[in-house]
Structures are given as C-alpha cells and as structure tokens.
C-alpha cells in the first residue's frame, strides 16, 4: 500500500497543506503500509493543529465519506475526510444578523453546504479599522488608502494589494519589512500584489503570528473574511501593545507581587501585565474588588471609572457612577479616557457587551497614554537593564526560536492559541517544549506521564524529564542535558534543544534534505564566484549567494539598483542582508533570522533561511 491518491483530490488542497497532512499521516501509520486506525484520527487532527475538535467532531467528519474498513482508514480516504475542513470549493455567502445580545454579526456560509456557518463581529472589524486609521494616519504612502470606513467591509478591498498589511506589520515591530521592497505604485499588476501579500504573511509569521492556512489568495479573493480578521486581530493587538513590556516601561516593576523577581515579569504577556496594572491602580484607590478579565468584570464601567479617577483625579471624576444607564455610563468612561489622551477604538456598546478583544484594546490605549506608575530608582533601573541586555547574540537566537514556535499554531487543551513571551521562563515546566516536540515528531511524547497543570516541583521535574525522553526519541543530541536543566531555565541547553527541533522542522518540509544537499542545490543556481563551501563560509556575509539563488527562482523579484555588489563594508552587508530577507519573504519564504545573522554568518539560522528558500524554489509558480 502506498501514499498515492487521485491527482484531482491532491490538487484540491494547497501544496503546503497537502505536504503537512501527508507528513502527519505517515507518522501515525505504524506499519508504514498506507493505513491508520480510526481510533487515532482525533489525535491526528490535534497534531495538525485542530486541537479544538473533540471525538464527536472527528466522528462527524468521517460520516458521509466512503470508508470501507470500520477500523482502518487509507490515505485516500483520509484526504477525502480532510476536504471537509480544508478545501475551498463553493461560493461564500455573506449575511448580517443580530445575535441574542443584540450584537451585530456577519455570517459566512457556502451554497453547497460544505462548511458550517462562520460568524464574525462587525464591532471587532470596525475597531480594527479604527486602529489602522489611527496608526497609519501619518504615513505618506498610506494616504491614498485612508481613512477606511469602519462600519463597512471596505477594509477587505483595501488589503488586497498588501501595502496596508506590510505597513501595519512594521508598526507592530519596527524594521520587520525592508520598505524598499514594498510595491507601492498605483495600478499594480497581479504579480506585484502577490509579492506584497507574500511579504506581509511571511513577515507576520516571522514575528510569531499564527498564519496557518493563510495565503495570498485568502486575502485577494475578498471573501475569506474570518481568516483575514484573524490576522488583523493579531497585528492590531501587537500595534497597540508593542510598548507594554519591561524594556519600554521599566516602571512596570511596580507590579511585582511579594516574593517575585524581575524575571517573573518577563513571563507575562502584555495582556497579563495590563490585568496586573489595572488591579494595581484599583488597589491604590482602596477599591476592594479586582478584575480577572476584560469582559464581564468591566462591562458595568464601575472599575473603569475608579481606574481613570485614580490615574488623574483632576481630569477624570467619578460622576459616571451616578448614572444608572449603562450605555451613558460607558460613554462617560470613554470621554474621561480621551481627557488622558487615550485613543478610543471602541464604543460604549462594546464596553457594555463585555467584548474581551475590544476592551483589551481600550485598556492598552489607556495604559499607553497614562501608565501612572512611579519611575524606578536608579538601582532598580540598573537591575532591569542588566536582565534585559544580557547576551545579545543569545537574545537574537531566543527571539528567532520563540517566533518560530509561536508561528506553529500550537493550542492548549482548551483550543486556545499558545503564544510565548519568554522562551527560557516559559520552558521551565516543560509543557511548551513538549507540545512543540509533539508537533514536529507526532507520537514522541507520552502524554499519560505529563501533568498539564503542574503546581509542585516534582510534577514539573517529571514534565522536564519527559522533554529529555521525547528528545531522545526524536534522535536529538542531548548529551549532558537533564530535566533539571530545563526546570532551572538553563539558557544554553534550552536553546540547544529548541534549535534541533527547528532544524528538524526546516528540513522536514523540504523532504529531509541534508545541509550539504541544500548548499549543493544553491551552488547549482549561482555563478562560480558566488559558490560556497558550507553555511560557515564567510562569503555568505554579503548576502549575494542568497540574492542570486532567488534571482534564479524569480528574476523579477530583484531590484538590482538596491543590491550592493562592489563593496564589502559593514553598511553594504547590512543593506544586502535586509534586502535578501525581504525578497525571500516576497517569494513566500518564512524567515526567522535577522540581518545580523547573515552579516555575521550564523550558520544555524542560515540553514533555516536556505531551507525556506529551497521550499519556495521547488513550489514556485510565477504569477502574471
């Protein structure tokens, strides 16, 4: 039995989706005979990222598909089942309706009933548009696109050429995209639009956003609203929260709880920091209650009123508490926030409805305008700086590995996306590493031995020991590394394990090529003067090896007026490296290295760069 299937069936999937499904199916095919057991189908779905599905969902997916054996499933039968989740056939219909709470929603469905109804909130779309209008208002390139009407679906048309997305991603994280490579002219052809969209999606992955299943045509067809809004939410949240971290606001040390250290703050996401910040000010105001979320706990506007008054008693009074009408009370809250200089992305109705996403944006806006925290002492500032500036090269690796993990689309047991903010601190209980190991090598983790909510050192140690065992099953080199090293947050050893996962994943997606085979492939595509001996070759520092490989894939992608070929100084290396990374992303490559990694010839991350370019080269189809 083989893994062959009807060509039309294969072509109904995107190439990257088909490759991932084939890889995971093979991992669950114990006897390597093209057959897997029905009982393992749910585990397989979870390995593919559909962790929100339950057994009844798996059973429902198999219904209606002609499966001959009641206990086993062939590869072709498996693909027919997966068509229910991933195929794109059928026109999407758009209908508006009000939910039980009177909230305006949009429902998507397909005329052929091949997909379930999907809905999104008009209020959320409108808020995201307001963030875009505000954050890009001063960008001269974006003048022709803005302002976008928040209360319409105009945003989906505005995103189609990729310019707004590219600009927004750079707002989320400065310098992610080399702006010289963004196509900006009027009346762009399809090739230039696809370049921009590939650039935006690949750049989004590189900063740790979940873009599973998203491709340029998801945006260009103007109908895949839910996927596009999912990306918009992630980017908009980063834009609004990009400065809510200890490095930008050292005064956040005031939020430390008794017995905690600075490293404990690094574990917290911006949302968790905002929650602490909100409760800190409630406590300072001698208000007995505290909030646990940005939904039901704030919908009556009482705590908002206390927070704003505590931040500035002269500008923000508490008269809202005398208002019995919740909408009018919420309006007073928004009016007070504007007095502090906060951007208003939401409406009074959004507060009263308890919309978690929109209230999170609102609280972040208040923090950005008026943190209201006492500055750190000189000694505290020095301790924070030492913690944050330790090991610059190691910090670059940590960032690259962390963004790679975040891009994998991992979910917890509740189906919620996993997003890590500090690799070392969040690896200490073993869970993030175990989930990543399972993603790369399905079946390597003995989940029965894992405690998913470890609260004592013994259980944490058991989890970390399982990281070591699963790593051994994956054939990683872990000589001298023990579970205790993971539990203690040993940076060197955590990076060593995660690097091997990232390396394996990079090579998996290109058919398990070796590093030597990759270099040989690259050398076949460049002139003699640019050939290299290995990924440690210092000739790689000027990026020309990579640029000429990409020229062989798509000559139109290179603007030779930007490439420096006659100089070898530091500025020229930086120029070329930044350009090479953005060109790779324009072609659709997912790149996690930064320009310094190329200029300094860091062979580990250069392997991932070359592997990603190889994948693009093998699957590349030119767009007219």
Chart the SSEs and their pairings.
Layout: H1 7-11, H2 15-28, E1 35-37, H3 41-47, H4 55-62, E2 72-74, H5 75-86, E3 92-98, E4 104-110, E5 118-121, H6 122-135, H7 154-158, H8 163-172, H9 190-206, H10 216-220, H11 225-241, H12 262-266, H13 270-284, H14 302-311, H15 326-339, H16 348-353, H17 356-369, H18 378-389, H19 392-407, H20 423-426, H21 431-440, H22 457-473, H23 483-487, H24 491-508, H25 515-523, H26 544-553, H27 570-586, H28 595-599, H29 603-619
Antiparallel strand pairs: 1-2, 3-4, 4-5
Helix pairs in contact: 2-5, 6-11, 8-9, 8-11, 9-27, 11-17, 13-14, 13-17, 14-15, 19-24, 21-22, 21-24, 24-29, 25-29, 26-27, 26-29
Walk me through the structure.
The chain is mainly α and 624 residues long. The protein has 29 helices and 5 strands. The longest helix is centred in the C-terminal third of the chain and has 18 residues, at 491-508. It starts with 6 loop residues before the first helix and ends in a 5-residue tail after the last helix. Helices cover 51% and strands 4% of the residues. The strands form 2 sheets. It has a 3-stranded antiparallel beta sheet. Strands 1-2 form a two-stranded antiparallel ribbon.
Total strands: the figure is 5
Strand order of the largest sheet: 3-4-5
Q: How much of the sequence is in beta strands? A: under 5%
- Percent of residues in helices comes to 40-55%
The secondary structure category is mainly alpha
Low-confidence stretches: 87-95, 106-118
Radius of gyration over all CA atoms, rounded? 25 Å
Average pLDDT level: 86
Largest beta-sheet characterization = 3 strands, antiparallel
Alpha-carbon distance between the two ends: 40 Å
Summed up, the helix count is 29
Q: Given the C-alpha coordinates, what overall shape results?
A: globular
């Amino acid at each position: 039995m083989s893994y062959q299937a009807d060509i039309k069936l294969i072509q109904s999937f995107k190439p990257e989706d088909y490759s991932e499904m084939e890889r995971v199916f093979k991992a669950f095919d114990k006897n390597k005979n093209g057959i897997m057991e029905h009982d393992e189908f749910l585990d397989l779905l979870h390995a593919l990222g559909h962790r929100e599905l339950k057994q009844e969902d798996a059973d429902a997916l198999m219904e209606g598909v002609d499966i001959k054996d009641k206990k086993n499933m062939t590869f072709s039968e498996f693909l027919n089942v997966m068509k229910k989740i991933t195929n794109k056939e059928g026109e999407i219909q758009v209908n508006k309706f009000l939910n039980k709470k009177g909230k305006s929603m949009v429902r998507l469905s397909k005329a052929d009933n091949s997909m379930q109804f999907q809905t999104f909130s008009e209020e959320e779309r409108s808020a995201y548009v307001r963030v875009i209008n505000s954050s890009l208002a001063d960008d001269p390139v974006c003048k022709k696109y803005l302002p976008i009407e928040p209360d319409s679906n105009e945003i989906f048309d505005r995103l189609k050429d990729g310019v707004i997305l590219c600009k927004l991603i750079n707002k989320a994280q400065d310098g992610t995209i080399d702006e010289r490579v963004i196509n900006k002219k009027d009346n762009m052809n399809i090739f230039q639009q696809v370049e921009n969209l590939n650039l935006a999606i690949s750049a989004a992955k590189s900063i740790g956003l979940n873009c599973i299943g998203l491709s340029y045509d998801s945006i260009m067809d103007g109908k895949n609203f839910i996927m596009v809004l999912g990306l918009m939410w992630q980017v908009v949240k980063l834009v609004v929260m990009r400065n809510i971290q200890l490095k930008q606001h050292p005064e956040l040390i005031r939020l430390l709880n008794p017995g905690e250290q600075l490293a404990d703050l690094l574990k917290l996401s911006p949302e968790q920091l905002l929650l602490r910040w909100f409760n800190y000010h409630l406590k300072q105001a001698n208000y007995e209650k505290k909030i646990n979320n940005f939904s039901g706990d704030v919908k009556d506007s009482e705590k908002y009123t206390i927070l704003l008054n505590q931040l500035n008693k002269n500008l923000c009074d508490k008269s809202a508490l005398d208002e019995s009408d919740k909408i009018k009370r919420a309006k007073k809250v928004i009016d007070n926030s504007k007095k502090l200089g906060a951007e208003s992305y939401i409406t009074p109705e959004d507060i009263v409805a308890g919309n978690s996403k929109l209230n999170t944006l609102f609280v972040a806006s208040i923090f950005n305008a008026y943190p209201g925290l006492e500055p750190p002492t000189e000694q505290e500032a020095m301790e924070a700086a030492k913690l944050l500036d330790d090991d610059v090269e190691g910090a670059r690796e940590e960032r690259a590995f962390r963004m790679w993990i975040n891009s994998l689309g991992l979910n917890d047991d509740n189906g919620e996306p996993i997003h890590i903010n500090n690799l070392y601190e969040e690896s200490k209980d073993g869970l993030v590493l175990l989930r990543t190991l399972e993603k790369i090598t399905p079946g390597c983790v003995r989940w029965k031995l894992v405690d998913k909510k470890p609260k004592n050192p013994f259980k944490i140690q058991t989890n970390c020991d399982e990281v070591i065992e699963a790593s051994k099953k994956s054939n990683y080199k872990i000589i001298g590394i023990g579970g205790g090293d993971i539990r203690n947050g040993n940076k060197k050893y955590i990076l060593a394990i995660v690097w091997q996962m990232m390396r394996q994943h990079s090579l998996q997606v290109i058919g398990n090529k070796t590093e030597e085979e990759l270099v040989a492939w690259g050398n076949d595509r460049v002139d003699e003067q640019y050939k290299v001996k290995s990924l440690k070759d210092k000739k790689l520092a000027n990026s020309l090896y990579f640029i000429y490989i990409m020229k062989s894939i798509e000559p139109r992608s290179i603007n030779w007026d930007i490439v420096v070929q006659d100089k070898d100084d530091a500025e020229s290396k930086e120029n070329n490296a930044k350009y090479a990374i953005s060109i790779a992303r324009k072609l659709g490559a997912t790149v996690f290295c930064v320009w310094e990694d190329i200029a300094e010839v860091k062979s580990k991350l250069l392997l991932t760069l070359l592997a990603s370019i190889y994948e693009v080269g093998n699957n590349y189809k030119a767009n007219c």
